[in-house]
Every structure is written in structure tokens, then in C-alpha cells.
Design goal:
This protein is mainly α and 234 residues long. Helix 2 packs across helix 10 and helix 5 crosses helix 9. The chain has eleven helices and no strands.
């Protein structure tokens, strides 16, 4: 609630959203780009503030911390297109728009995950929050219908290992609903949350005396051997 007041919001529902948002974005495992970058910098025994600055620099990349903004733009573009064409939001129109996106050589943002092969639990709890607090919101209705349609389309398309929504598929429309519309600030919210997880990792790294991280490198000969071994298996 204190954080919400600093943002200029004084709504019990927004307080609950911030509790949810800050909890689910904290850190899910050390392999994501921002958590790994913070861990790498901290392994040099650099100041934790500098370690987190490195993590936030990674988080600012469009393939990582800006994903929910990409989803929000896609959802808004869908709504604008439907309004222009006089279409209703339903399973058939969402399915057609999704195929239109894919056939145009574009991706549907907010779906798929590098590790998970199920619906992201962080998406599911946001969906539950939305259906409880803002089920009549137009953008929420679009996201809810996308959840019911898009996984099947992506599975049929056959180019994704995980056709289910991830954490970024829902957060943008929740923030917009409460009036937090400055999209560039979304990464700041993400960073505030992620800092909690990253700093917990730094604490345990130093408590356990983990060594300086040094990624392994490969020679051209080593790469050639790996390629030959892979080719032999196929």
C-alpha cells in the first residue's frame, strides 16, 4: 500500500494488484536474463547496487522486461482493428486475427516460455484477479478470450513448443484498468519486484561463498566436434 501511495494511487483494489504484481515478478529462477546478469555482476563481489543496475539494464531489453508492453500494444491493435471492421470479440474473430498475425510473419506476444510447457501460474493468478475485480473491462475480455483461443491456434501452427500464455500476457491490461498508463514505467515496476529476488540470491551467494562466475568458452575445433556428433545422431 505504501508503494501504491508513492505512485499516487489510493485504491484498495490497486493495493491488492501491487501486492500480486510485486510478488509474482520477484524471481522465478536464476536463468532469466535479469537475474542471471545481477548474479554474474555480484559474483565479482561488486556492490549490490551495481549488480542490480546490471540486472535492470538487461531487464530494459525488448525481449525481456518490455514484453508486457508488446502484449498491450497487440491487444489495443486488435481492439482498434475490430472497431474499424465492426467486429465483435469472440472465439471466431480472435482466431481469425491470430492467424492474420501469424500469416503476416509476426508473433503473438505473451505466449510461450523458454522453460514452462504449461500455462504460466503467474498468468493464472492475474486472470483470477481480473475476473474478480474487472470482468467487464473491454481489454480484460479480449485477453480472457485470447486465452481460450490462441493456444489451439499456436499448437496448430506448430512453431512453438509452448502455446500457453506467460506472465506478460495479462499484466499490462491490469495496470491500464487502474489508470497506470505510462508504459515506460512498467519496466520500473518489474525492476522493483525483481530486485527483491535478485538481492536474496546475492545474499545466499555470499553466505555460501560461491566463486566468481566464469562462463565456459569453446574452440572452433570443439564446435566442429559438437556439430559432427549432432549430425551423426540425426
Amino acid at each position: 500500500a505504501n508503494f501504491a501511495r508513492q505512485l499516487g494511487f489510493n485504491s484498495p483494489d490497486f493495493d491488492e494488484l501491487m501486492r500480486l504484481y510485486l510478488t509474482i515478478h520477484t524471481d522465478h529462477e536464476g536463468g532469466n536474463a535479469s537475474a542471471h546478469t545481477a548474479h554474474l555482476v555480484a559474483s565479482t563481489l561488486s556492490d549490490p547496487y551495481l549488480a542490480m543496475a546490471g540486472g535492470l539494464a538487461s531487464l530494459a531489453g525488448p525481449l525481456h522486461g518490455l514484453a508486457n508492453q508488446e502484449v498491450l500494444r497487440w491487444v489495443r491493435n486488435l481492439k482498434a482493428t475490430f472497431d474499424e471492421r465492426g467486429l465483435e470479440v469472440n472465439h471466431d474473430t480472435i482466431r481469425d486475427f491470430t492467424w492474420e498475425t501469424l500469416n503476416g510473419g509476426k508473433v503473438v506476444p505473451g505466449f510461450g516460455h523458454a522453460v514452462l510447457r504449461i500455462t504460466d501460474p503467474r498468468y493464472s493468478c492475474q486472470r483470477e484477479f481480473a475476473l474478480k475485480h474487472m470482468s467487464d473491462d473491454e481489454l480484460v475480455k479480449i485477453v480472457a478470450t485470447c486465452y481460450e483461443v490462441i493456444p489451439d491456434v499456436l499448437a496448430e501452427h506448430g512453431k512453438t513448443k509452448n502455446p500457453f500464455p506467460n506472465v506478460d500476457a495479462h499484466s499490462g491490461v491490469l495496470l491500464v484498468h487502474y489508470g497506470l498508463t505510462e508504459e515506460n514505467f512498467y519496466t520500473v515496476l518489474f525492476g522493483v519486484s525483481r530486485t527483491i529476488g535478485c538481492m536474496a540470491q546475492v545474499f545466499w551467494d555470499r553466505a555460501l561463498g560461491l566463486p566468481l562466475e566464469r562462463p565456459k568458452s569453446l574452440t572452433m575445433e570443439g564446435l566442429r566436434e559438437l556439430a559432427q556428433a549432432s549430425a551423426a545422431k540425426n
